[in-house]
Amino acid sequence: MTTPTFTPRVFSGIQPSGGLTLGNYLGAIKRFVQMQEEGLPTVYCMVDLHAITVWQDPADLRHNTRELAAGFIASGISPEKSILINQSQVPEHAQLGWVFSCVARMGWMQRMTQFKDKAGKNTQNVSLGLFGYPALMAADILVYHATHVPVGEDQKQHLELTRDIATKFNHDYGVDFFPITEPVIEGAATRVMSLRDGSKKMSKSDPSDASRINMTDDADTIARKIRKAKTDPDALPSETEGLTERPEARNLVNIYAALSDQSVDQVLNEVGGQQFGSFKPLLAELAVAKLSPISTEMARLMSDPAEIDRILARGAEQAREITVPILEKTYEIMGMVR
Ligand code: TYM
């Protein structure tokens, strides 16, 4: 349970390390918009300092950060209602990140499955930042005293670590200063899978572009990728249990449910018994109807990058009204002379 003394605040972030995918949209951004519309104080972040844990070409990073901001806004994040920032313009993230590097234990970090996946056999050659990444992520959240963090399923372990860091800091200094944050992992599409392989997560780093839907894909591309998505030969079941052991079928039904704001049961009520030959065109039509307006609006926003930069500069000012006092108090608790 969240400590009752903390007022609710939502924080989440996405790496500007390449195009946005349907996974990012359904697992994260769609939920960000809902939480904003619920009237909660919300802070959403392009985590550029996280992106550089692997090499980023400077021109690409600049472009991808602006494009991600355009994606947030085109999806419904309003700079009037939410604070929209890129991480490096709010220096308190990195400052608290260092403090948390001194709180987190090596053993905790070594258990992170995402580090193991990303480093693979290459553990001696990846950056130190890639290993320490979850301490910075905890700082992103806790420098706002955020209580709720909407994310996809793959971030669950990092959020558990965030709770461990807050608990240890509070315990070591005998304070109740950092909230114990709640992950918000909800909806039909908390783990969108590759269109080519139902056992792999949909990811911007997959070498096959056909494995994912990019938020910048045009209508024809979206329809073609869905038509070619891997499936099995059976008809769709009428009950959820019928999707067990059918990862590709389950994935397409989950995507349909998330895009149409229905539960999987409701979708199967509607489409149970259909072959993929008739379900895929329905899904393609729905995906195009939901995603095309977003990609059109992204392109429009990208024609005026100076306006995006102004929004991010204003966001950083608003953010620092929250982060500066929290960092100051953290230093004071720790005995740093001010
Ligand atoms: P990132 O940039 O990999 O992904 C951003 C968000 O999209 C979700 N997501 C998915 N959800 C469902 N299905 C998928 N296939 C899929 N792929 C991605 C992710 O779960 C995430 O919510 N470490 C984070 C960024 C971060 C952050 C934070 C998040 C940095 N600091 C503080 C929350 C709070 C990351 O790499 O996400």
Automatic annotation (TrEMBL):
GO cellular component: cytosol
GO biological process: tryptophanyl-tRNA aminoacylation
Pfam families (UniProt xref): tRNA-synt_1b
Enzyme Commission numbers on file: 6.1.1.2
Residue positions of motif 'HIGH' region: 16-24
Coiled coil stretches, renumbered: none
InterPro entries: aa-tRNA-synth_I_CS (IPR001412), aa-tRNA-synth_Ic (IPR002305), Trp-tRNA-ligase (IPR002306), Trp-tRNA-ligase_bac-type (IPR024109), Trp-tRNA_synthetase (IPR050203)
Known catalytic reactions: tRNA(Trp) + L-tryptophan + ATP = L-tryptophyl-tRNA(Trp) + AMP + diphosphate + H(+)
Keywords for the protein's UniProt record, in alphabetical order: Aminoacyl-tRNA synthetase, ATP-binding, Cytoplasm, Ligase, Nucleotide-binding, Protein biosynthesis
Positions of L-tryptophan binding: 140
Subunit structure: Homodimer.
Family, as annotated: Belongs to the class-I aminoacyl-tRNA synthetase family.
Name recorded for this polypeptide: Tryptophan--tRNA ligase
Source species of the chain: Roseobacter insulae
